[in-house]
C-alpha cells in the first residue's frame, strides 16, 4: 500500500472539470474507494490502499458528476503482492518474544548495510507492519510479556534500535509493550536506550527519551487515519486524496 498510482485517460474519457474520478478496489473481504487528483487533462493520480492480504482484486475507475448517475469508465485487475518487506514484517511480528528467533536476527548486525539501504528497509518494513493484521492480544514483548522485567532477554525493540530503524522503532513504541521494552536488558546488559547511545544514533536516542517526541519523517506522516467500526478513512496530505476502506 501507499504507492502512487497514475491513471492515463483516453481521449474520449477526457471530460469537463466538474467530473470527479474515483478508483474502487474490490477484494475478497475488504473494499477500498480512493479519490483522485488531476495532474493534467489526461492524467489522474492517487494512492494505492494497504490491503489485508495478498490477492488479485478488481479495480474500477468511476466518474461522478452532480445530477448524473455514476459511470464505470474502465475496469482492470490489480495485484497485491507479498514482497520481502511484507515477509520481514510478518516474521518479526511472529517472533516477538521468541528468543531463538530474535537472537538469530543479530547476525544482520555483523554486516551492517549502508545508510541508504537502512533507510529503505526502515520505510518499507514499518509500512508493511502498519498494514499487517496483528492479533488483538499482540504485544512487542510477545506472549511472555508477563515475565519480570529483571529477566534479561532480547526484544523486537532491541532489534529495531540495533539496526537504527527510526520509523520501525516509532511504530513499536505505539504498540502494547513498546514503552515497557525500553527498560529491558538483554544478555549483554544493554537496553534499547543504551544501545542507541552506544551506537551514536542521536535521533533514535531522542525518540526514545524525549517526552512528546514526534514521528520521524516518512510517507506515513503525510497521512491521517480515522477509524469507525468496520470503516476507516485516510487523508493523504501530500496528494490531498482520501481513501475509504470498508470490510465487506
UniProtKB/TrEMBL annotation:
GO process annotations (BP): adrenergic receptor signaling pathway; positive regulation of canonical NF-kappaB signal transduction; regulation of Rho protein signal transduction
SUPFAM superfamilies in the record: Ankyrin repeat
Xref: InterPro entries: Ankyrin_rpt-contain_sf, Rho_GEF
MF annotations from Gene Ontology: MAP-kinase scaffold activity
GO annotation, cellular component aspect: actin cytoskeleton; membrane
Protein name in UniProt: AKP13 protein
Species of provenance: Grantiella picta
Lineage: Eukaryota, Metazoa, Chordata, Craniata, Vertebrata
Gene symbol of the encoding locus: Akap13
